[in-house]
Amino acid sequence: MGVLKRFEQRLEGLVNGTFAKVFKSEVQPVEIAGALQRECDNNASIWNRDRTVVPNDFIVELSAPDYERLSPYSGQLGDELSGLVRDYAKQQRYTFMGPIKVHLEKADDLDTGLYRVRSRTLASSTSQSQGPAGPAGHAGPAAPPAGGRPGGYGYPPSAAPPMPAAPPPGMNRPPAGRPPGAAGPVPGAQVRRWIEINGTRHQISRPTLVLGRSTEADVRIDDPGVSRRHCEIRTGTPPTIQDLGSTNGIVVDGQHTTRATLRDGSRIVVGSTTIVYRQAEG
Known about the structure:
By secondary structure, this protein is of the alpha+beta class. The protein has helices spanning 3-16, 29-42, 64-70, 74-92, and strands spanning 45-48, 51-53, 57-62, 101-106, 115-120, 191-197, 200-203, 208-212, 219-220, 231-234, 240-243, 250-252, 255-257, 259-261, 267-270, 273-281. It has a six-stranded antiparallel β-sheet, with no helix packed on it. The chain has a five-stranded mixed β-sheet with strand order 9-8-10-11-14, with no helix packed on it. Helix 1 (3-16) runs antiparallel to helix 2 (29-42), helix 1 runs antiparallel to helix 4 and helix 2 crosses helix 4. The radius of gyration is 21 Å and the shape is globular.
């Protein structure tokens, strides 16, 4: 049984009872839950082969009317959503730097039924980080990031390993058998892939990535010109993008198409939204 389905079952009694009137607004718990899962996927940071760190502190911004309805129940809802994040992380083998927290906040720029999720990685007050099957329950307030930096949403993990030093002169030669300036990844090298939408980076960590306006898409694009399941990026060799029968189609590097090969820097237009595909070795 999927994590979202179990979450819905846990909330069933609450929605039919305590929350029955509260959730007459357009924002539904399962929508928020799906957004938290995508927030983990899109901000996963691969530290090494055995450890992928995801955010553990989440802010769910709601319109003023939705916030007024939900704020009296924010404690219960926050606990349930934290449990969902913990279950999803266990399923995906993600790890955390500290205890999981989900908070609700009011955003005056949002209309009823709209919401926005922000996240950050906060270190625990102890040196032990939670593993994939992080313990249930609650810990004390998270410690500030190392070095006294206040920490903000979108910051990388506070204890992230240092960036590798630049290679010594002469060490950046291409591998044997590969001519200088040859394009494409080195055979056997790990390739990182991601897309950039309006300055936001979304990591591609699975063989396929569905883009669309639906909350069920892997990356949701809030654009009226985008179909619910608009297109799909496939991380094969070479990587490709495939139109999924969308209304307005896709444009890749200036060409209308239904399928195209992607390269680092490819520009994809869906509706009125521009997406930049990126990949790099290492």
